[in-house]
């Protein structure tokens, strides 16, 4: 049985904030409480409030501000000798590094966070940090290495009745099944995640689950309108909480759904929107996926084949450097689809 979802990253004077609080509101209140703690010489409280500030900035796409905030939170925690707070700051920094595509840094920071969480006796930050490591590996496409860790974390979350973490693990496992072609298993897991998130009032988790369900409806069932309806519901949740990254991925998925339906002009417009959003928040993985969708859409709309081939080649090189294996495979398939004609054209 799962209780109501909560946000353990909202600490100190900010524990009254909801998991569904608008990130703009979290940033405003967190900044106010942070300054109060700093003025009164309470580094432990400053570290805890600074964590919420860092996370709000990160989720709003304010990369430079988020980077400064998590580092300040870590310094305050170290000054206070608060090992668990140091772990939370490192978790935030590692999550930001993954968002920016700095995967080696993400592995290092999240690994340190897990170690400090265990040393500080905070099982929640340890779990979140291990989850961060699992997600980093999954995003890079290394499913064999992190699949077991996802399952372990899911079992631990179920045992503790932590709805938010259970939803995260279900969605991660579902995404791996979707990417390896097991659409039925992926749909069942996304569906369970959506049900748990809705009962626990976890809007963020619910929005991501709806996005996953929409993807399966589009790919497996060719149900374009059903998929678009789910994405509209998810978008409403994203906007209510100012979830910039989730909203951009929603728009990118809407582009995918429209592209599969042969509505290439509409897909182009959505990919262009998503690309602009990802670039504004320095989200390289999302940017690469939006670029791929846009290149394919433009090719379908009559773009010169040589230009398409050049764009895909540049994208392939970018992904090769970043280590995003699954995305690189997607580009390779696009090169097979559009490349031979381009070679003839040259």
TrEMBL record:
Q: Which Pfam families match?
A: TPR_12
Task: Tell me which domain of life the UniProt entry assigns to the organism this sequence originates from.
Answer: Bacteria
Entry-linked InterPro entries: TPR-like_helical_dom_sf, TPR_rpt
Q: Kindly list any coiled-coil regions of this protein.
A: none
Q: Which Gene3D superfamilies match?
A: Tetratricopeptide repeat domain
Quote the protein name from its UniProt record: MalT-like TPR region domain-containing protein
């Amino acid at each position: 049985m799962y209780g109501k979802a909560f946000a353990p990253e909202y600490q100190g004077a900010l524990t009254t904030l909801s998991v569904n609080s608008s990130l703009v509101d979290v940033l405003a209140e967190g900044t106010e409480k942070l300054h109060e703690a700093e003025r009164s010489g309470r580094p432990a409280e400053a570290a805890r409030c600074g964590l919420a500030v860092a996370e709000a900035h990160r989720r709003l796409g304010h990369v430079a501000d988020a980077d400064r905030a998590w580092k300040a939170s870590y310094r305050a925690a170290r000054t206070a000798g608060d090992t668990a707070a140091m772990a939370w700051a490192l978790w935030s920094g590692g999550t930001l590094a993954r968002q920016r595509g700095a995967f080696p840094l993400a592995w290092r920071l999240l690994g340190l966070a897990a170690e400090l969480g265990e040393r500080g006796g905070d099982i929640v930050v340890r779990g979140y940090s291990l989850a961060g490591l699992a997600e980093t590996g999954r995003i890079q496409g290394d499913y064999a290495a992190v699949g077991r860790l996802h399952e372990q974390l899911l079992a631990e979350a179920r045992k503790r009745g932590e709805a938010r973490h259970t939803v995260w693990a279900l969605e991660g496992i579902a995404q791996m099944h979707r990417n390896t072609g097991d659409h039925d298993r992926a749909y069942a897991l996304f569906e369970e995640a959506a049900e748990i998130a809705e009962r626990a009032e976890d809007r963020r988790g619910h929005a991501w689950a709806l996005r996953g369900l929409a993807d399966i409806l589009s790919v497996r069932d060719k149900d374009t309108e059903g998929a678009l309806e789910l994405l509209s519901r998810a978008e409403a949740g994203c906007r209510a909480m100012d979830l910039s990254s989730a909203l951009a991925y929603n728009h990118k998925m809407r582009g995918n759904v429209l592209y599969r339906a042969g509505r290439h002009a509409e897909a182009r417009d959505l990919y262009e929107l998503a690309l602009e959003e990802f670039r504004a928040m320095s989200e390289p993985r999302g940017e690469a996926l939006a670029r791929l969708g846009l290149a394919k859409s433009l090719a379908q709309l009559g773009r010169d084949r040589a230009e398409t081939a050049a764009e895909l080649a540049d994208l392939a090189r970018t992904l090769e450097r970043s280590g995003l294996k699954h995305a690189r495979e997607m580009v390779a398939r696009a090169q097979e689809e559009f490349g031979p004609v381009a070679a003839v054209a040259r």
